[in-house]
Write a structure and sequence with these properties.
- The protein is an alpha+beta fold.
- Helices cover 29% and strands 25% of the residues.
- The protein is built from seven helices and twelve strands.
- The chain has a five-stranded mixed β-sheet.
Length: 221
């Protein structure tokens, strides 16, 4: 919260703003304050849907908010067993069209996977305003090749250079499958993410000389 507060407010001369600017300042300040208060209280977030309870009560992954999935207790229990220190969770209530409640959990993956991108075989477009290989500095990969065993002892994490990409280990993926977790799309780097790139012979780089490795981590949307 302190970082956000400084970024939004500390360098602004409030009295120099016009009426519209002061209104925007007040709205942002109020939003940050409300977010900070909620973070401290951990009161359940409430989402209203037009679906009936029968349509969603057996779904294990409903949707995600800013790459933070909303999951069932079954998913949460698996993650608590395999990677309890790599995420934080918040209670989440879905209020259905027939005025019923479905209790779920918002999962924010906090572990960052650093030094995972293989720079020799990946092709990366960097954001102009970021230093390469800094946090969230990658705009896209064509392709993305990871170093072997880059997750190390972890089973889930966000790619440091592109935090919207959530990587999971094969162990965690298999645990989800074995428990019958539904509504979760498993996407492999080799067969899905890089597939289009490898099919375009005219845009392939001579630097890409190694095939994708089956042992690489995978990420789930």
């Amino acid at each position: 919260y302190k970082g956000v507060s400084h970024w939004l407010f500390d360098d602004i001369d409030y009295n120099s703003l016009n009426e519209e600017g002061k209104n925007q300042y007040d709205d942002r300040y109020d939003a940050v304050q409300r977010t900070n208060n909620w973070y401290k209280s951990r009161e359940p977030l409430v989402f209203i849907t037009q679906e009936k309870k029968s349509a969603i009560q057996h779904v294990d992954v409903v949707f995600d908010i800013w790459n933070s999935p909303i999951v069932s207790k079954k998913v949460l229990d698996i993650m608590l067993d395999l990677c309890p220190d790599d995420f934080e969770t918040y209670p989440f209530i879905i209020l259905t069209e027939d005025n019923q409640q479905v209790e779920m959990f918002l999962i924010n993956i906090t572990h960052l996977i650093k030094n995972a991108v293989d720079p020799e075989f990946s092709i990366i477009d960097w954001w102009d305003f970021k230093m390469p290989y800094s946090e969230d500095s990658a705009q896209r990969f064509e392709p993305l090749i990871l170093k072997k065993n880059c997750l190390k002892e972890h089973h889930i994490g966000r790619l440091y250079e592109s935090k919207n990409k959530i990587m999971v280990s094969r162990t965690l993926m298999n645990a989800f499958k074995a428990s019958g977790i539904n509504a979760l799309e498993y996407i492999t780097l080799d067969k899905d993410v890089n597939e289009y790139y490898y099919s375009q012979e005219d845009i392939r780089s001579d630097r890409i000389s190694n095939p994708p490795q089956d042992s690489q981590p995978q990420y789930a949307k």
